Amino acid sequence: MGRANKVVLAYSGGVDTSVCIPYLKQEWGVEEVITLAADLGQGDELEPIREKALKSGASQSLVIDATQSFVKDYAFPSIQANALYENRYPLSTALARPLIAKLLVEAAAEYGADAVAHGCTGKGNDQVRFDVAIAALNPDLKVLVPAREWGMSREETIAYGERFGIPSPVKKSSPYSIDRNLLGRSIEAGPLEDPWTEALEEVFELTKAIADTPNEPEYVEIGFEKGIPVSLNGEMLNPIDLITQLNKKAGDHGFGRIDMMENRLVGIKSREIYEAPALLVLIHAHRDLESLTLTKDVTQYKRGIEETYSNLVYNGLWYSPLKGALDAFVHQTQERVSGTVRVKLFKGNAAIVGRQSSKTLYTPELATYGSDDKFDHRAAEGFIYVWGLPTRVWSQNLRT
User: Fold this and answer.
1) 346: number of CA atoms within 13 Å, CB side?
2) Mind giving me the DSSP string for 16-68?
3) Which is the catalytic residue, given 50, 97, 180, 287?
4) How confident is the model at residue 16 (pLDDT cuts 50, 70, 90)?
5) Which CATH architecture has domain 177-356?
6) Cα–Cα distance, 122 to 157 (Å, whole number)
7) What family is it from (predicted)?
8) Is 11 annotated as a binding residue?
9) pLDDT value of position 154
10) In terms of DSSP H, where are the helices of 141-238?
11) Is 69 annotated as a binding residue?
């Protein structure tokens, strides 16, 4: 891969991305490095991160608040698709990658850079998500990945940075690798690399231990319009406030933890811990509302679409042709998915206990066994005869 003169680097303020700045300039001859830190609601103070990039040798340090877009353009479509990778992980971290890639490509165009860079290693999923998304948005843009090539250990990386004035971490480094944004946290490495070892309470921040949760349940009513969550307990909220408040409510009741063995795109199994209280509640509630408002065939067919959709997002294909086609299908199905879902939060559970919609397909006079029953029971005999005819013919054929 050819080198570049001006590079926009995805920047987190950590050791690896900080060391990327002098490494790109010293080892690869890059003349100018512009850093880009994306605020996705992770709660970090970004001004020190901006200043650290400049002290590490960046010519400019960009900080972009993209939280609103993150929720509206990435999380909400994923909720409409009930996206759960391997039927468990709601893609809280994976959803951030196509957005960061988009910000990198846009910044490269604005500042006249001929390449972008990131600090991913060669073992993870994020390198694929970044590289493929960038290629989809601008196939002519070079992507530089120093950490895939420098072959330095953690200690060597810190020592390299110190040579160029980048201070080593002051406090003892946590054994865990943690990524956080508004949608949740992902925790891996350290003791968690043993699948038999239980995750300690110290790894969790968004969800309380069951012993510390309230002894009374809390009910939350979530309002949806065309598959998009718009309200909590009857109060219309903007997307960021809705996620923030629901994270707090569900997390306080200990809901939202995932402990799973995950199949990475690169073929490695990894043990992952996730916290995503609001996102999990919203997907479960949304799916339930669909069961009230969508026809049987659409509901059942959509389940296969959802699995494919989840795999595409996890595997870094957010900007792919198939993902675009599935978006159109999902969008069409959401026209009638409006209503309210009632959720009971209690002791680590989020049980759906009620749902209502003006678009409901539930017909009480057809479903009831009471005196209001309007179903024509006599029609059942003819239906069963026709429905079971292929089975009857097959069975008779076996006897001949």
Assistant:
1) 10
2) HHHHHHHHHHHTS--SEEEEEEEESS----HHHHHHHHHHTT-SEEEEEE-HH
3) 97
4) confident
5) Alpha-Beta Complex (3.90)
6) 16
7) Belongs to the argininosuccinate synthase family. Type 1 subfamily.
8) yes
9) 78
10) 154-163
11) no
Q: Are 109 and 74 in contact (CB under 8 A)?
A: no
- Beta bridge partners, 7, equal 33, 115
CA distance 95 to 81: 13
Q: Determine which one of 61, 126, 180, 310 is catalytic.
A: 126
Report the C-alpha gap between 129 and 313 in whole angstroms.
9
CA distances from 174 to 21, 162, 187, 188 (A): 23, 20, 11, 11
- Rounded average pLDDT over 164-175: 73
Q: What pLDDT score does 46 carry?
A: 86
Domain boundaries, the chain: 6-68+91-163, 177-356, 368-398
168, 173, 174, 177: which is the annotated catalytic residue? Answer: 177
Instruction: Using the Cα atoms of residue 128, residue 131, residue 134 and residue 140 in order, give the sign of their dihedral.
Output: negative
Q: What is the pLDDT of residue 204?
A: 97
Helix orientation angle between 46-55 and 15-26, rounded to the nearest 10 degrees: 30
Q: Please say if 97 is a catalytic residue.
A: yes
Q: Which residues contact 259 (CB under 8 A, 6 or more apart)?
A: 199, 271, 272, 273
Confidence of residue 173 (pLDDT cuts 50, 70, 90): low
Domain made up of 6-68+91-163: CATH architecture: 3-Layer(aba) Sandwich (3.40)
Q: 339 vs 124, 332, 350, CA distance in Å? A: 39, 17, 18
The answer to whether 3 is annotated as binding is no
Active site residue 177: yes
Does 126 carry a binding-site annotation? yes
Question: Strand (E) positions, 264-338?
Answer: 269-275
Joined tokens for residue 254: 């200990």
If one compares 267 and 275, the residue with the highest pLDDT of the two is 275
- 16, 61, 92, 336: the active-site residue: 16
Is residue 316 marked as binding?
Answer: no
Q: Inform me whether the pLDDT recorded for 281 exceeds 70.
A: yes
The annotation status of 274 as a binding-site residue, yes or no, is yes
The answer to whether 89 is a known ligand-binding residue is yes
Q: What is the mean pLDDT of residues 195-208?
A: 96
To the question of whether residue 10 is assigned a binding role by annotation, the answer is yes
Q: What is the pLDDT of residues 290-325, one digit of tens each?
A: 999 999 999 999 999 999 999 999 999 999 999 999
Residue 172 pLDDT > 60? no
Question: 217 with 346: CB under 8 angstroms?
Answer: yes
CB 147 within 8 A of CB 16: yes
